[in-house]
Specification:
With 395 residues, the chain is mostly helical. The chain is built from 18 helices and no strands. 52% of the residues are buried.
C-alpha cells in the first residue's frame, strides 16, 4: 500500500485494523466471568483476580510498548500487540483449567498495550502532527466501536470458546491488514544502555489524564445500580454515554487542532462535572439519560487535547514512549479509582461515588494550567530531560 499524506488510505487502513483488533478483544468480555465461574469452577475471588490481572499487566506493558515503538518501529509494536491478542484467544482455549484464563488475560494486557501504542503513534505520523487531535479522535472512535460491538458478537456466538476463537481469527486478520501498510518511520539509533523514564514535565499531563479517567469505574460499576432506584434508566444512560463518546470523537475529535486545545480541555471537563453532579442527584430517567450523554460528550475532549499538545513538544523518536507513559497513568488511576469508588459507595452510598468522580475531574482541571500554559523544555532539550528523569527513577 503506497504512502498517502494526511487522512488517506493508509490512515483509514490503520483505523480499520485497530477496530478489528479491539472488536476481537471485546468478543470475550461478556462471557469471561461466567466462563471462569462455571466452566472452570473458579470462585468469585478467582473471577476478580482473573479480570484484574489485565490491568496490572497492561500497566507494566505500557512502559515496554513505548520504547518498542520508538526503537523498532510502529509497525512492529502494532503487530506485537495483535500477535499477543491472538495468543490470548488461543490461551483461553487451552485445556489447562483456570490457568488458561490467567494466561489469556496476561496476553490480553500485553496485546492491548502494544496495539494502542503502536496505532496511536503511527496514525499521528501518517495524518501529520498538525492533525494529531483529529487522528487520535478517529482512532478512539475505532477503539470504542470495536469494544462496543465486540460484546454483542460474543453474546450472539453463544459460547465463550467460540468468542475466544473469533478473537484469535480477528487478531490475525487485523495483522494481515497491518502487514500491507507501508511505514515511513525510521527508528532512531539508541546508545546501548540508554534509559527512558518519566521526564518531570510529563507529570502534569499524566496526572490530568489519570484524574479525568477516574470517573470511568464509577460509570461502569455503579451507574446501573444507582439509577435502579431512580426510574431504572441505567442501561439507557450508559448507552447514551458511550454513544456520545463515539460520535463526538469521530466528528469533533479534531477541534484541538483548530482552536487552542486548552479551550476544548476545560470545556470538556466542565461538561463532565455538570453531568456527574446531575447523576449524583438521582435524576428521573429523561434527565439521567441527558446527564450521561453530557458526561460522555465532555469526556470525548480531554484526552486528545492533552495528547496532541504533548506530542507536538517531542521529537518523533520519543512519541511512542510518551504515549505509553501517558496511557500508563490511565491504567493506574482507573485501578485506584475502582477500589476507592467501591469503598466510598459501600460506606456512603452510590451518590458519594459520583461526587468523588466529580471531585477528581476538578483536580484534573487544576492540573490543566501547567499542561497548556507552562513553559516546557524545547524539543532539542528533551533528551537531556529524559535522561535526567531516568537517572532519578533508577535511584
Amino acid at each position: 500500500m503506497p504512502s498517502q499524506p494526511g487522512l488517506g488510505a493508509r490512515f483509514w487502513a490503520l483505523i480499520g485494523a485497530t477496530f478489528i483488533g479491539f472488536l476481537g478483544i471485546g468478543t470475550v468480555l461478556p462471557g469471561l466471568a461466567p466462563h471462569v465461574r462455571h466452566d472452570l469452577q473458579g470462585s468469585d475471588q478467582a473471577v476478580g483476580f482473573v479480570i484484574g490481572t489485565f490491568s496490572f499487566v497492561a500497566l507494566a506493558a505500557r512502559l515496554i510498548s513505548g520504547p518498542l515503538a520508538d526503537r523498532r518501529g510502529r509497525k512492529i509494536c502494532f503487530l506485537a500487540g495483535l500477535v499477543s491478542c491472538a495468543a490470548a484467544g488461543g490461551a483461553y482455549l487451552a485445556p489447562i483449567g483456570i490457568a488458561s484464563a490467567y494466561m489469556g488475560r496476561i496476553f490480553q494486557g500485553m496485546g492491548e498495550a502494544c496495539l494502542y501504542t503502536g496505532a496511536a503513534t503511527w496514525v499521528v505520523e501518517v495524518a501529520g502532527v498538525d492533525r494529531s487531535a483529529r487522528a487520535l479522535g478517529l482512532l478512539s472512535s475505532g477503539i470504542w466501536g470495536g469494544i462496543s460491538a465486540g460484546p454483542v458478537m460474543g453474546a450472539w456466538l453463544g459460547s465463550f470458546q467460540a468468542a475466544a476463537l473469533l478473537q484469535l481469527c480477528l487478531a490475525l486478520a487485523a495483522g494481515c491488514v497491518v502487514m500491507l501498510i507501508h511505514e515511513d518511520y525510521n527508528p532512531a539509533h539508541h546508545e546501548h544502555g540508554e534509559g527512558f523514564w518519566m521526564p518531570r514535565w510529563l507529570l502534569a499531563p499524566g496526572l490530568s489524564v489519570g484524574f479525568t479517567n477516574m470517573h470511568y469505574p464509577v460509570i461502569t460499576g455503579f451507574l446501573i445500580l444507582h439509577l435502579a432506584q431512580h426510574g431504572n434508566s441505567g442501561r439507557a444512560a450508559f448507552s447514551a454515554y458511550a454513544a456520545l463518546i463515539l460520535l463526538s470523537r469521530f466528528f469533533l475529535g479534531g477541534l484541538p487542532d483548530r482552536i487552542h486545545p486548552a479551550i476544548t480541555y476545560f470545556f470538556g471537563l466542565a461538561l463532565m462535572i455538570a453531568g456527574l453532579l446531575a447523576l449524583a442527584a438521582g435524576p428521573p430517567p429523561a434527565l439521567a439519560i441527558a446527564s450521561a450523554a453530557l458526561l460522555g460528550f465532555g469526556f470525548s475532549f480531554p484526552w486528545s487535547a492533552v495528547a496532541s499538545t504533548v506530542l507536538r513538544r517531542v521529537p518523533p523518536q520519543q512519541r511512542g514512549s510518551i504515549i505509553g507513559l501517558i496511557s500508563a497513568f490511565y491504567d493506574l488511576f482507573v485501578g485506584i479509582s475502582s477500589f476507592a469508588a467501591g469503598a466510598v459507595a459501600e460506606r456512603f452510598g452510590y451518590p458519594a461515588a459520583f461526587l468523588l468522580a466529580a471531585a477528581s475531574v476538578v483536580v484534573a482541571a487544576l492540573l490543566g494550567r501547567p499542561v497548556f500554559f507552562s513553559k516546557q523544555p524545547p524539543v532539542d532539550a528533551a533528551p537531556a530531560e529524559l535522561a535526567s528523569g531516568a537517572v532519578s527513577a533508577q535511584r
